[in-house]
């Protein structure tokens, strides 16, 4: 589930009036409906903040069971570490952007350009569907508003939560209007930085996949449409985009670097990016992917060992089928893997700004330092100007494959035009549907590492599509929403560990004959090894089995088991609950949040 910024400067003048009209004066400190919405430029300026306010700004630093930092997110810690917010709008129960959306929709017909009316109605309805997608993911049932609400409209202001089905139906109406009326030719818009028909199809494929799988795995029975209906809607939207859209899996002909090159490019690649955030250090509008990955102040992020184990071998076989995989050290585990691994974390030979950067336990809590969105040539921690994705064709392909698999309609041809095109970029062997279903991966279906609730004839291929989704979309903001829709909250209870070390000693990570990491016990003298990171076991580096094991930075951090009856939704803030109650309109809190 899962990002566009434009600086907008609006200088608007209000004309003067005579003294004779004093009683009819419009407020001089703001633009009124009568003065505005009259031209296409008015509509453009009024809608520009939607990109900045509604689309998420960045996702590369979002924690999950696949990537963590020093301070675990509240979701990973669970229990009392996910408190009920006490401030107005806390936890996401905010409607400010929706009011702006509905204001434009109620005034758009004042524009003197009929084609602009249709275009900006479509853009605005796209953003209303996007806005409500976030609300449904967070809260489930929410009140649906499609009109402006004044402070005296108490029946509307404090209306009860509408059913999930009503909201989803309205979202479909909005996104279908957007699909039918937004431009579909790239030359007509500032693609990939502006909403198009293709972005609307991507959004539809995304939120319908969420809803279909959520209803299926949660056993959610609601009057109206069932899980199958939404899965079909997702597959159909994705199919139209894949077959008729102007997008493809981008490749420069250099498989070793294609994947990461896509994410560090200064300008979003229009072959693959359907919608992107524009960053530019000349404005300046920048992000801090470099600081996130290379400075201790940003939390020392790292991929988890569990995630590293998910990456296949270069020949398509499973890493976890190799003998001794559990106790394999870094130098061996990263050999001959899916090339996307070396394009996502530091591996031997990784250079940035003409300097070699080996894995560093002082900059990562697991030792698997992320690099996916870190461009070369950055001079300041917060000065990255490479564009970031909202939607790209690879995600839509994965949506299609998953929806078809969950429907029981997936074919090998479906995989060949989706998952296997993604794998072709990095020269990985194709996914074979019959083989996957005949031999479901025990690692991905295990209670300790995966999703034990997947079953049925397509169990094996569904697990493989989930693997592909985790690998291809790493750090793109989808994981937490995926966990919720799959009813896989127990993934957040699984071990959070890093590299494996069999004990004190010197470790040559890059095979150059010189150790990069040296570990020693408390009863040993500190080694003096030039150019190496030297750590005392038990204090500077904690391991799961005392003097050996996996890096266990969070071993003593208090974590509460995922609450299956509560944690798939967020709580409504106590402030808002009390506000409704004081007005005589009780607002129902989500189950389990007291």
Q: How do the strands and helices of this protein lay out in sequence?
A:
Layout: H1 40-53, E1 67-68, H2 74-77, H3 96-107, H4 114-139, H5 154-157, H6 164-181, H7 197-217, H8 227-244, H9 255-264, E2 273-277, H10 289-294, E3 302-303, H11 305-310, H12 330-333, H13 339-342, E4 351-352, E5 355-356, E6 388-392, H14 393-407, H15 412-416, H16 419-425, H17 433-438, H18 442-445, H19 459-472, H20 479-485, E7 500-501, E8 505-507, E9 517-520, E10 533-536, E11 549-550, H21 574-582
Helix pairs in contact: 1-3, 1-4, 3-4, 4-6, 4-7, 6-7, 7-8, 7-14, 7-20, 8-14, 14-19
- Overall shape: it is globular
Question: How does the major sheet shape up?
Answer: 3 strands, mixed
Distance between the termini: 27 Å
> Which assembly state applies to the chains in this document?
single chain
Output the strand order for the largest sheet: 8-9-10
Question: How would you state the average pLDDT, rounded?
Answer: 92
Strand content: 5-15%
Uncertain runs are 1-29
Helix content: 25-40%
Measured on Cα atoms, how large is the radius of gyration? Answer: 26 Å
Category from helices, strands and their pairing: mainly alpha
Number of DSSP E strands: 11
Q: Helix count?
A: 21
Describe the structure.
It is a single chain. 36% of the residues lie in helices and 6% in strands. The protein has a three-stranded mixed beta sheet with strand order 8-9-10, with no helix packed on it. A two-stranded antiparallel sheet has the order 1-3. It has helices spanning 40-53, 74-77, 96-107, 114-139, 154-157, 164-181, 197-217, 227-244, 255-264, 289-294, 305-310, 330-333, 339-342, 393-407, 412-416, 419-425, 433-438, 442-445, 459-472, 479-485, 574-582; strands at residues 67-68, 273-277, 302-303, 351-352, 355-356, 388-392, 500-501, 505-507, 517-520, 533-536, 549-550. Helix 1 (40-53) runs parallel beside helix 4 (114-139). Strand 4 (351-352) and strand 5 (355-356) form a beta hairpin. The chain has 594 residues and is mainly alpha-helical. The protein has 21 helices and eleven strands. The chain starts with 39 loop residues before the first helix and ends in a 12-residue tail after the last helix.
């Amino acid at each position: 589930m899962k990002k566009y910024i434009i600086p907008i400067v609006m200088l608007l003048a209000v004309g003067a009036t005579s003294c004779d009209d004093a009683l009819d004066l419009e407020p001089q400190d703001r633009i009124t409906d009568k003065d505005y919405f009259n031209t296409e430029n008015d509509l453009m300026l009024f809608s520009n903040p939607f990109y900045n306010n509604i689309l998420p700004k960045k996702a590369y630093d979002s924690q999950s069971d696949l990537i963590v930092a020093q301070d675990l997110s509240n979701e990973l810690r669970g229990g009392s570490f996910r408190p009920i917010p006490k401030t107005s709008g806390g936890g996401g129960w905010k409607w400010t952007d929706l009011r702006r959306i509905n204001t434009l929709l109620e005034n758009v017909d004042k524009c003197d350009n009929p084609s602009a009316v249709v275009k900006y109605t479509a853009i605005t309805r796209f953003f209303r569907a996007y806005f409500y997608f976030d609300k449904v993911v967070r809260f489930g049932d929410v009140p649906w508003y499609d009109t402006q609400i004044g402070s005296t409209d108490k029946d509307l202001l404090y209306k009860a939560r509408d059913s999930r089905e009503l909201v989803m139906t309205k979202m479909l109406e909005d996104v279908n209007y957007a699909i039918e009326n937004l431009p579909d030719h790239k030359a007509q818009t500032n693609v990939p930085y502006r909403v198009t028909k293709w972005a609307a199809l991507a959004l539809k494929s995304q939120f319908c996949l969420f809803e279909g799988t959520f209803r299926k795995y949660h056993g959610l029975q609601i009057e109206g449409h069932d899980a199958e209906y939404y899965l079909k809607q997702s597959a159909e939207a994705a199919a139209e985009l894949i077959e008729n859209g102007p997008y493809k899996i981008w490749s420069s002909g250099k498989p070793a670097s294609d994947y990461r090159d896509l994410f560090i490019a200064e300008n979003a690649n229009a072959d693959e990016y359907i919608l992107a955030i524009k960053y530019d250090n000349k404005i300046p509008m920048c992000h801090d992917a470099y600081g996130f990955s290379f400075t201790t102040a940003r939390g020392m992020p790292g991929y988890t060992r569990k995630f590293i184990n998910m990456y296949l071998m270069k020949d398509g076989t499973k890493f976890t089928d190799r003998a001794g995989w559990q106790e394999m050290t870094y130098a061996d585990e990263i050999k001959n893997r899916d090339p996307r691994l070396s394009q996502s974390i530091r591996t031997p030979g990784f250079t940035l700004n003409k300097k070699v950067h080996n894995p560093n336990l002082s900059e990562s809590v697991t030792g698997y330092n992320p690099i996916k969105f870190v461009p070369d040539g950055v001079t300041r921690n917060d000065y990255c100007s490479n564009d970031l994705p909202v939607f790209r064709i690879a995600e839509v392909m994965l949506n299609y494959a998953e929806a078809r698999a969950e429907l029981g309609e997936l074919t090998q041809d479906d995989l060949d035009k989706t998952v296997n095109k993604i794998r072709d970029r990095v020269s990985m062997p194709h996914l074979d549907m019959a083989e996957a279903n005949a031999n479901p991966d025990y690692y991905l279906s295990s209670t300790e590492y995966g999703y034990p609730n997947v079953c049925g004839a397509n169990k094996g291929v569904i697990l493989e599509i989930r693997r592909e989704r985790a690998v291809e979309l790493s750090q793109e903001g989808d994981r937490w929403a995926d966990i919720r829709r799959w009813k896989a909250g127990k993934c957040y209870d699984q071990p959070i560990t890093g590299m494996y070390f069999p004990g004190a000693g010197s470790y040559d990570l890059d095979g150059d004959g010189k150790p990069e990491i040296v570990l020693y016990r408390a009863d040993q003298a500190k080694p003096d090894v030039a150019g190496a990171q030297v750590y005392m076991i038990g204090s500077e580096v904690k391991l799961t089995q005392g003097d050996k094991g996996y890096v266990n930075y969070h071993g003593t951090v208090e974590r509460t088991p995922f609450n299956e009856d509560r944690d798939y939704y967020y709580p409504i803030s106590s402030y808002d609950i009390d506000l409704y109650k004081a007005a005589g309109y009780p607002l129902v809190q989500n189950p389990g949040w007291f």
